[in-house]
Amino acid sequence: MSTLEKIQNRTSIDIIALKNRLERELNIDNISDNNKKEKANEQLVYSIYDVLVIILDTIHQAKVPEGLYTTWIRMIKDYWYLNKYDKIFVSNANTDVNSNLQVKSIQLGDTTTTFADKSSQIEINGTTYNTGTVDFDEDILIEKYKKDLYRHRKMRW
How confident is the model over 15-31, as pLDDT tens digits? Predict the structure, then answer.
């Protein structure tokens, strides 16, 4: 059984349509190298599956309901950017050595400039998170989408 079939068995949402939409929105369709495009598509399927497991563990249901379609898509996109798959597969730009540095303060009298190191922080859609825990990616997704997920949550005893 393929990973897509496993995912399809856990929801009534059309997985092929969801995957095609994500390929367009994550710019996987624009990758010119076929080998890289194939690896990106494979990683996308794994990302869909990973987020499926996070959702099912949070809502305590056997299947993802259709009401979580847009939440699922947003979570997959955040998971994709959080794990930097966009830089691995889509982006061709070289990373700068000082890309994690941001100006923290500037003093005019002595011309002092202080930089803040952002290497322990990640940014998803304009929101900055600290990466303190081991499972920060799962924790961030659950915290960010807790309101949407808890509407579909069933109590467990």
Answer: 999 999 999 999 999 99
